Amino acid sequence: MLTNDYSFRFSRSSKYLNSVLLIIPMVLLFIGVYGGLMQTLFRAGMIQSDPFVGGDYYKGLTFHGVLNAIVFTTFFAVALGNAVVPYSLKKTLNGKIAWASGILMLVGSVVAAVYILIGEATVLYTFYPPLQAHPGFYVGLTLLVVGSWLASYNWVPMYLEWRKENRGKKTPLAVVGIFTTFIIWFIASLAVAVEILFMLLPWSLGLVDEVNVMLARTLFWFFGHPLVYFWLLPAYVMYYVFMPKIGGGKLYSDMAGRLVFMMFIVFSIPVGTHHQYMDPAIGAQWKMLHGIFTFAVALPSLITAFTIAASLEYAGRRNGATGLFGWLGKLPYLNREKWFFSYLITGLFIFIFGGIGGIINASYQMNTVVHNTAWVPGHFHLTVAGPVLLAFLGGSLYLIGQFLSKEIRFKGLAAFMPYVYTIGLFIMSYGLKIGGLKGMPRRTNTGASYANPDSVLFQADWMPYINMTVVGGVIMFVGIVMFLVPFFATVLSRGSTGTEADDGGVDIKFPISESLHDEEAKWLRNFKPYIIIAIILIVLSYTPVIYDVLQATYDGSLPYSPNSPVPLREQ
Ligand code: HAS
């Protein structure tokens, strides 16, 4: 049902590697999601101790953020690239490099997770100093990133070979999307590599006593904002390439898709200072410049909103709709066979609200109201834990069925789950956002203080919102469990769809959409000009910021833990 006209043979080695890249992060995701549930219960003061993290709220929060936002997303992006690039180019993946990258990512993730679990890396997912982690945590994260670089390096020779053989042909849109994702990832992660290798690692090894907190934060956000597009763009690949076909239609404009991806290359990096509007040391004019670029980076998403809506309208009309809005009622919202559609449509709907929240954050004056309040996790759950997570879950289920040659089990449940999760997500995010507007802080164990009626800090007017986060969080957790049932039932099921080859390989199909308007746009054919413009904008926007930060007269900082007001070395 969800297939295109052609299938492509993946080798046995590719099949197993990609299955591992999908299954292991799913287990880690579950542990991370459990951590998320504990967050809401802790914050509401409903539990005092989670045995898994020894009652340490900040350790639980680090575990939740790192596993869900960094590990799960990176694994899925690589697995999707490993599947979509060879499929679209009809080229075979170099198995040795692919396995080397997978092993690096796995080892790195496990090492980082172990240090978090033993309490040696309670630094939250942003790991900015003065919170200090064990060197092993930084090494683990480095391996994860290097492994993902290696995976993308593996696709380049296939692409170059394809271009030689297909002169004058447009690169398949899915490949443009995946390459865009990894170009952004590569440029952005150079900054965090500098931060880790030259600042955090020597500092945590005790080779230097103090660290420049402002410089580390700046390097982190150079990486941190494009990181959100590294999460978002694999979802965009699925919206542009798979969704119109699954919905029964075509992509409205192929050119719009290409333009969107190129705009992300240009604008997704010179914006990081919008996370530092409230930080000292950086001049207001440079914050404004990053603010302007932030509004520019919202444009490709606005183009996406119109392009995908037009594609869905076309699908609805093809499915028999009449009238101005009749098409809205003719989409396969709850169709067992088209279960993948549920993940994509719910995510898009959520992103309307996540995107509006992002534009609010980007406005300096409004940022002064919401910064460091619960509003911000409200925003990012409507983005990374909404459209991104749902598209990645749907994509994981689709891919695992294809790689293991298994019919998806419990399709009805799989199609229904995104709606349950979405309801929970809206309730939780509403609680976080309105609580945030009332001053409720983020990253604070409210349960131990503000939500505890015995505490002098008790804040009665936050209670309804804290309680909403609990209700929403529980529903989201139920939603994830509802997803894991079809996922693991499919993995463990017997039988085969008959796509296995005699040599142990497997024939894979993707629902690749045709385009309604297949415009020719030669200026969108090559990544190079866009990478060059991106580099120019990065230099223009970051040189003054780094200069300001280096000129600032602050002393470096000793290492701290979030659980103690005393520097670690004085304990
Ligand atoms: Fe953000 C903070 C600004 C998008 C994630 N963001 C965060 C943090 C995270 C995050 C994790 O300017 C917290 C970091 C931390 O820990 O401190 N964000 C933006 C802007 C956008 C944006 C302008 N963010 C994202 C995405 C994320 C993400 C995407 C993850 C994947 N964000 C900020 C700012 C902050 C921030 C400030 C700092 C706050 C502070 O003070 O700390 C834009 O890219 C958003 C553009 C999106 C749109 C929406 C388009 C809508 C679409 C749906 C169409 C629907 C259809 C369906 C077609 C304009 C595409 C129709 C429906 C039917 C039923 C038919």
Describe the structure in your own words.
The chain is an all-alpha fold and 571 residues long. The protein folds into 3 domains: 159 residues; 177 residues, no CATH class; 155 residues, no CATH class. The chain has 16 helices and 4 strands. The strands form 2 sheets. It has a two-stranded antiparallel sheet. Strands 2-4 form a two-stranded parallel sheet. The longest helix is centred in the middle third of the chain and has 35 residues. The chain is globular. The chain binds heme-as. Heme-as binds next to α7, α9, α10, α12 and α13.
Question: How do you describe this structure in short?
Answer:
This protein has 571 residues and is mostly helical. Helix 9 packs antiparallel against helix 16 (528-551), helix 10 packs antiparallel against helix 12 (375-381) and helix 10 (339-362) runs antiparallel to helix 13.
List keywords for this structure.
single chain, 571 residues, mainly alpha, 3 domains, two-stranded parallel sheet, 16 helices, binds heme-as
Task: Identify the overall geometry.
Answer: globular
Mean pLDDT: 94
* Spatial arrangement of strands, main beta sheet: 1-3
Poorly predicted residue ranges: none
**Number of distinct beta strands:** 4
Q: Terminal Cα separation, in Å?
A: 62 Å
The tally of helices reads: 16
* Helix percentage: 55-70%
Structural class assignment: mainly alpha
